[in-house]
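Intended use. Records like the one below are meant for learning the mapping from a protein sequence to its folded structure. Do not use them to infer anything beyond what is encoded.
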Amino acid sequence: MAEPVTESAVLEALRPIVDPDFGKSIVELGFIKGIAIDGGRVSFQIELTTPACPVKAEFERQARERVAALPGVEEVHVEMTAHTRGRAAAPPGAGEAVLPGVKNVVAVASGKGGVGKSTVAVNLALALRETGAAVGVMDADVYGPSLPLLLGVHGQPRSVGKRILPLEKHDLRLMSMGFFLTDDSPVIWRGPMVHGLIRQFLADVEWGELDYLVIDLPPGTGDAALTLTQQAPISGAVIVTTANDLSLVDARKGLRMFEKVNVPVLGIVENMSYFTPPELPDKKYYLFGRGGAKRAAEELGVDFLGEIPIDPRVVEGGDKGEPILIAAPDSPTAEALRRLAGDVARKLAVLAEAAPPVADANITWVTR
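Structure written out for the chain above:
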């Protein structure tokens, strides 16, 4: 007669499974929850640090096989769950926290315009949402807000008291200066006005509970970008560039800005990297040069987050309010953006483990 299955035996069977980002066993990391044993039937949960974990299926397969191999086990049920890790809360007495319900704030930036930064930001948010995460997008480009066009969202947000309610589309919570403008509204802003608007978007929008808030920064290192890096509890930044030299020079400037304000740079992604004609699926034509962003990442000591190919449907969908993840979800470009989202989510989870508490940032209502 076989010995009864024990919880310790199940844990020992799972111990060799190592999370590649943390470099530790999923048992040591406390990912294994709710072990239940009923005769030869064993069930448990694997609670990941992000729903966007790209090795989720591999973890499930290994766990099922290892536990099934134990003597006396007849049936194994593995439930994959996720508890997104984020920045620590402000310490007691430090004042009201900025974005208290937001676990991770991701800044998407570029040194110059025209590299597809806003498109990357919107699709990054959609890819994170696909995994089951709660996601918001804040369009911080007050001079050229593009979120309404890219997602086909229009109408002025409602307010309750001094709280602004974000609009929603594709299960994303959205805020943009574009929601408050008409097509012929002049956008003339001076530094203090930009500062006040950004503060309002951070402090007075009812973002609620979010796993990720993706902030689409304006190009360059001007007032809005600097205000955000100083006021928002940014968990990490993604630099978007193309392979040509001018874009790379400006991308380096953006990276240095984040370093100056102690915001971790998650890496550099090369957008519009190459073109593959539909009739030649094995060909890659590098129209703007090849490998520039990867070389820049190596020089600057940050991670290279991959290449996003050119797809005419990105432009077509952007004009119609249909991002590539919605318009062509099975396209190579959509898959590249999903890989980017997985990398970003994993890096944020690792950073959250060592993140210090957020410093006090007392932001007041701006009544201009």
